[in-house]
Structures are given as structure tokens and as C-alpha cells.
Amino acid sequence: MSRALAAVVCIALAFVVIMAAYRLGRRAGKRQTIPRRPIFQLVEHRTRCLHHDRDRVVRELGPPLGIPAWAWKELFALRRPLARRSAAGRSAGR
Fold this sequence. Notes:
mainly alpha; 2 domains
């Protein structure tokens, strides 16, 4: 096998590996999910603070965040705020 042919094969192989890695990286990037708590906070802010109706929130946030239709009932459910420990409780716990 001549050196020129070996170089062409190596370059073609490198190109294939680079393209495969690029596609796999793009696919993995699209799969990355957003933690649930910021989504809850965003939905709550839009419905309670900005007074958007539920249909508008679903229409504006559903497609960009990839929220399935079955998850909206839980997102719109009323939740209690998280209990926060006082500063004295935090320093005593250390």
C-alpha cells in the first residue's frame, strides 16, 4: 500500500470518527434535562406573579422545555414553600 493511499484512508477514517462523535454529542445535548425545581418555579411565577392563564403557560413553555402533556397537572398543582431553617439552626447543625 502506498503512503498516499494510506494517508487518504487515515484522513477518511478520521473524518468518519469526527462526524460520528459530533452527531453523538448533539444527540446527548438534546437529551439533557432541566432539573424539576426551576421548571416548577418558572411555571409558578408565570401563573401567580404574571397572572398568565394556564393555556398560555403551556403554549409558551411546553415546546421549548420539552414538557410532556401528562406533566402539566403536577406542574400546576399548589405546593407549599420549602421550610427554611433559621440561622441559629444552621450554625448549631455544623
